[in-house]
Design a protein that fits this description.
Structural class of chain B: alpha+beta
Largest sheet of chain B: 5 strands, mixed
Largest sheet of chain A: none
Strand content of chain B: 15-25%
Helix content of chain A: 55-70%
Radius of gyration of chain A: 23 Å
Shape of chain A: globular
Distance between the termini of chain A: 46 Å
Number of helices of chain B: 8
Largest interface: A-B, 101 and 98 residues
Strand content of chain A: under 5%
Helix content of chain B: 25-40%
Oligomer: heterodimer
Order of helices and strands of chain B: HHEEEEEEEEEEHHHEEHHH
Distance between the termini of chain B: 34 Å
């Protein structure tokens, strides 16, 4: 098993004396939410390494002007694969994987509501990723066209039409995303049903852990957001194969139509990826501050309002397409509104730490990194919401910096926090703290070194998605610092991989509740048995284990 | 892998194209609101970041901790109300300022005497037409400067011949997308004569990186002289008649126009006054006989993926052709 992927390691007692094929078979046919969750996360991490290498190649190309490390054709494919992979085959599988693993445990359930649908959804997502990368095998000459897609991850029409994208590269992109979309919708349906129907006795909606609440909102958002994406992909498919003209501008189609369809998916998608990060922070910050989350009802309300507002902001990606002043003003103001609930969340995390006794274990370090970096991402988001400022900033490197602060500085940091926090639960072993600290600090340095200068490259007038630039524009210095940062990031990821592999075999035994935490997953064994709980728990408050540990001062008196 | 010819791509002078160095009306408006936004977000960063840092340091677990749990605080309606209302007020104020700037910039009406230019995006070059003046050129936009006597803005109609592009010269204005099947508008009113650089800002295919723009802002009299020169038909120079015959008897004329000759193609740039331009292939190389020769010999070598085909001319014919093109001043 370990030969294939160490993060899929099964508990030793399970694997002893069994052949690799039989263990493998057990995982492949599994409908257990925990195994599917781990497979989601493992597949996401594998694609993360691949897409990270793609980014590294791009950073090498951009380290100096007029470089020729890769050709423009290869650069455009790297850029498209990197974006598509990171959003659909890294971000989505990892956040859904954690939800899969944790939601049933946190609500005291034995599995997801539809275990078979769960397995189906995971495999659809994975096949989507495999299909995307099998485009690399499609030889150049097969249809007279290129192999990997090269139209960018949001694939603006009519660049994707037959006239401009010959061959089948765009079709690989199109079908890969259609497939993964089916998987995402399946898992979203499952999460909604599980959360509504399978909560243990006593767990009313207002007593669910914030993690569950936020992922519930995320699942609802997926159900609405994926549909326009799927519709757009089907229209593109019709354009390309059956001569429809939805986006075919040469036959009267509309280029803007694609943008509306894509971004009414694409912007909620940003929250679909980022809210699970908030969910993770909302569990970890209280435990390591030793305080209950501040303002639980407001946190829920803020999450739900982000869910709603998130659907009315999509055209802020389109301030430069020539909308009317009224349209631009509407989307500028609706986008700024998002800052209010998001700000409330940051203030509540701050208030949770205030007066606490903060323990700087690795999960908390990553959450602290997240707080500062996400603050930057939020503030650059406000700059982009100001439509006139956006006319300068959109499609420049400033945007690249902004969304990497969201997705790496925000989401990836919380994902690492989650891995350090729940790894002991999933494997029964602790990750090493020393390596964890190296991982954290190298990543903080590398990440900021790579992406902070990109803000300034954007100010200097550097558009995104260019495979090279002239030496006379003042872009070099920012690009050079940016590329050097990659070395630190790579070292950080190496520390992480070594840590995971080593700890799987030699990590300190974790016990059931290594962090002295309060939610239900810590009441069962590490790793949990297939049935999760011997007897289904019953709860009286949002922190059932706090009540157990402090019978004199239980939460339910104050909620 | 194809190395770009080193001699062709060097423009030693560093030109700024920084958005914080505006020289034209719409870019000025953006600059002012950008400063306001930077001040607000900077203040928020200092306050919130400071509070975060303070609480993390102040409330760290000490060495001599007794292991007891700190006081559990579940929330406070007053505090929650405060940090809901204050950001709401900031958003409201910022929203109104934003809307006003949007209406200011987008609502501008072309005054009498404004220059009107149609800019057409192509994969991967810019066609620039002055319909009222009968001028067609490429990649380099020439406009008059506004002075104390009054603003003489230039209004641009943006169209695309193929995919979505975006017109961006940071010091003059924010970007506006150039979209097929649609006519967008933007305007600039540069105050200071000079050269301003920009480029396509929406990914448009293989050579998106080499779809560069130059805007030359002239004092009024210099601009009028440029217009008069561009309105001339191509010069006829008998000494390059051989090259002209090559040009007119190969596929060149299917795509290129040279006014006053049989060449009337519209797919590629108008070459009537080719040598009046600083660059070749939308900024992939500086204009010179040498780079013209390299470009015609194998466009893909100078600009990989470019849509102009190599004509497979032998050296002698190529020399004649380049001599002819160099006469197009």
């Amino acid at each position: 098993m370990t030969l294939l992927d160490p993060t899929l390691e099964v508990p030793r007692s399970d694997a002893d004396g069994r052949s690799v094929p039989s263990v493998l078979h057990e995982w492949v046919v599994s409908v257990d939410h925990k195994r599917l969750g781990l497979m989601y996360i493992a597949s996401g991490l594998l694609f993360f390494l691949v897409a990270g290498l793609e980014a590294t190649a791009m950073r090498i190309q951009l380290v100096m002007p007029d470089n020729d490390f890769v050709t423009p054709q290869v650069f455009n494919r790297l850029m498209t694969l990197h974006g598509t992979t990171m959003v659909f085959f890294v971000g989505m599988p990892i956040v859904l994987g954690f939800a899969n693993y944790l939601v049933p445990l946190m609500i005291g359930a034995r599995d997801m509501a539809y275990p078979r649908l769960n397995a189906f959804s995971f495999w659809m997502s994975l096949f989507g990723g495999i299909l995307l990368y099998s485009s690399l095998l499609g030889a150049e000459g097969l249809f007279g066209g290129s192999a990997a897609p090269d139209v960018g991850w949001f694939a603006y029409a009519p660049l994707t039409e037959r006239a401009f994208s010959r061959g089948n590269s765009t079709d690989y992109w199109n079908l890969a995303i259609l497939l993964s979309g089916i998987g995402s919708v399946g898992t979203a349906i499952n999460l909604v049903a599980t959360t509504i129907c399978l909560r243990c006795p006593g767990m009313t909606l207002s007593k669910m852990p914030l993690y569950v609440w936020i992922n519930f909102v995320v699942a609802c958002m997926i159900l609405v957001a994926i549909s326009p994406l799927t519709a757009a992909q089907l229209m593109l498919l019709l354009d390309r194969f059956l001569g429809a003209h939805f986006f075919d501008t040469q036959a009267g189609g509309s280029a803007i139509l694609w943008q509306h369809f894509f971004w009414i998916f694409g912007h909620p998608e940003v929250y679909v990826l980022m809210l699970p990060g908030f969910a993770i922070a909302s569990e970890i910050i209280p435990v390591f501050s030793r305080k209950v989350i501040f303002g639980y009802p407001i946190m829920v309300a803020a999450t739900v309002s982000i869910g709603f507002i998130g659907f009315s902001v999509w055209a802020h990606h389109m301030f430069a397409v020539g909308m009317t002043p009224a349209g631009n003003s509407f989307f500028a103001i609706s986008t700024m509104l998002v800052a209010i609930p998001t700000g409330i969340k940051i203030f509540n995390w701050l208030a949770t730490m205030w007066g606490g006794k903060i323990r700087f274990a690795t999960p908390m370090l990553f959450c602290i990194g997240f707080l500062f970096q996400f603050l930057c991402a939020g503030l650059t988001g406000i700059m982009l919401a100001v439509a006139p400022f956006d006319w300068q900033l959109t499609d420049s490197y400033f945007v690249v910096a902004h969304f990497h602060y969201v997705l790496i500085g925000g989401l990836l940091f919380t994902i690492f926090a989650a891995i350090y926090y729940w790894f002991p639960k999933a494997t029964g072993r602790m990750l090493d703290e020393t390596l964890g600290r190296w991982h954290f600090w190298l990543l903080v340095i590398g990440f900021n070194m790579t992406f902070l200068p990109q803000h300034f490259a954007g100010f200097a007038g550097m558009p995104r998605r260019i495979y090279t630039y002239d030496p006379n524009r003042g872009f070099e210095i920012w690009n050079q610092i940016s590329s050097v940062g990659v070395i630190f990031q790579a070292a950080a990821i190496a520390c992480f991989l070594v840590n995971v592999i080593r700890s799987l075999f030699r990590g300190a035994p974790a016990g059931d509740d290594p962090w002295d935490a309060w939610t239900l997953e810590w009441s069962t064994t590490s790793p949990p048995p297939a049935y999760n709980f011997e007897t289904l728990p019953a709860v009286q408050s949002r922190r059932p284990l706090w009540d157990l540990k402090h019978p004199d001062d239980p939460d339910w008196r104050f909620e | 892998m194809l190395a770009p010819l080193p001699a062709l791509a060097v423009d030693a002078v560093v030109h700024t194209s920084n958005i914080f160095d505006p020289v034209s009306a719409p870019a000025d408006s953006v600059f002012r609101i950008a400063m306001l936004v930077l001040a607000i977000t900077g203040a928020i960063f200092v306050i919130v970041g400071g509070l975060l840092a303070y609480s993390i340091i102040r409330y760290r677990r000490r060495r001599d901790d007794d292991g007891s749990e700190p006081a559990q605080v579940y929330g406070s309606d007053q505090i929650e109300l405060a940090w809901t209302v204050i950001p709401t007020l900031i958003v409201l104020a910022l929203g109104l300022v934003t809307a006003r700037t949007i209406y200011d910039v987008q609502g501008a009406v072309a005054p009498q005497g404004a220059t009107r230019v149609t800019v057409i995006g192509h994969q991967w070059w810019w066609e620039i037409r002055y319909p009222a003046l009968g001028i067609v050129t490429a990649n380099e936009l020439h406009v008059p400067a506004s002075n104390e006597a009054g603003a003489t803005p230039t209004f641009l109609d943006l169209e695309s011949a193929d995919v979505v592009h975006s017109f961006w010269v940071p010091q003059l204005a924010g970007k506006t997308d150039v979209i097929p099947n649609r006519r967008n508008q933007m305007w600039i009113a540069p105050r200071e004569p000079g050269l301003y650089l920009g480029q396509c800002a929406e990914f448009c295919g293989t050579q998106h990186a080499h779809m560069l723009l130059r805007v030359r802002v002239h004092p009024r009299d210099e601009y009028d002289a440029w217009v008069a020169a561009q309105q001339q038909s191509a010069v006829v120079d008998p000494s390059v008649a051989a090259g002209r015959r090559v040009f007119e008897s190969t596929a060149c004329i299917n795509c290129h126009t040279v006014r006053g000759t049989v060449a009337t193609g519209r797919f590629g740039p108008d070459l009537t006054h080719l040598m009046s331009r600083d660059t070749l292939a939308a900024g992939a190389a500086l204009m010179s006989g040498e780079s013209l020769r390299a470009w015609i010999n194998d466009p893909d070598h100078v600009k990989p993926g470019a849509l102009m085909p190599a004509m497979k001319l032998d050296d002698a014919v190529l020399d004649q052709l380049v001599a002819y093109l160099q006469s197009l001043r």
